[in-house]
Amino acid sequence: MEKTHTTLDSTLDSVDKAEDLVMKEAAAAGFDEDEQQQIGMAVRECAVNAVVHGNRYSKNKKVHLDIERSKESLAVTIGDEGAGFDMGSLPDPLAPENLLRQSGRGLLLIRAFMDEFDLHPRPGGGTEVRLVKHLPNR
Amino acid sequence: MSVKLTSRQVGDVTVIDAAGRITLGEGASAFRDMIRDLAAKGNKKLLLNLGEVSYIDSSGIGEMVSGFTTVTNNGGQLKLVGLSKRVKDLLQITKLYTVFEVYDDEADAVRSFH
User: Which of A44, A100, A102 sits opposite B57 (nearest CB)?
Assistant: First the structure.
């Protein structure tokens, strides 16, 4: 198992960095190009949530990115230092009355592209999201 | 690379050619500004060509929806052409294929406005 930890500032540049780092690990793990793109997009959506909604671009708050690569899967944990998050408060983006809303589709895409998704309070404050994608048998 | 946007006229249809990435930040805001500008100038038949768009995130999708609403509220239409499989998949996942008219061929899309 290969593990890396990266601490990132709360900026949109960090979103690109997180996406790049994870996509490189996904390629090294053996995911194909489509799967790499899906993983990258899921990470991008999580990182945006951490920077924009969690840390609110605060210079004093960091985004924590952990990547675990094994022969079977890639696991990514993204944590912020924000005020916490209630997933139940989000409207269903697929409900007809919400289809034309501008925002609120990030978690839908994350769930569609990853095999496992878990959102929980981060020890010490904030929110942590853990994403797992299993390598298909090829 | 962020998004590159240009517009051209095909008859009375304004075609917006987008290339690159439509993501949170510069890409999505450039896209928003272009749609609002064209709608404000009275363009009512807008065709968004996504043939050279490599990537759209949820913010980019949000701007497409917002653009659709802006144009529709202005009495116009915004349609899509040239979607990659990945972008088509995003529209499927988000059920937005029920909102947007999508074409594979530009000539067919242009004709559909008449």
Answer: A44
